[in-house]
Amino acid sequence: MAGKTKNDLVNETARKAEMTKGKTKMVLDTLLESIEEELQSGRKVTLSPLGNFSVTQRKARRGRNPSTGETIQIPAQKNVKFTPSKNIKDQFN
Predict the structure, then answer these.
(1) Each residue's pLDDT tens digit, 19-78
(2) Which domain holds residue 18?
(3) Do 62 and 39 fall into the same domain?
């Protein structure tokens, strides 16, 4: 199942908003850049009615190399988490 690409979103948004593709791409790039900057600063981003983006911290843990079976240490890391809004969740239940 193929999804939409960034280019698909630009084309569709430009058509619906009656904007040029160039300006629409610039708006989308700016939006994504702003989201990235907020997440890098450790802040949460809320996009109603879509959901929330946040940064979570995973603790260091032991794991296993599936090729060799050797026990390895997996370092602590930060991850980006997306939590869909109630409205989005309800559409899939």
Answers:
(1) 999 999 999 999 999 999 999 999 999 998 899 999 999 999 999 999 999 999 999 999
(2) 1-43
(3) no
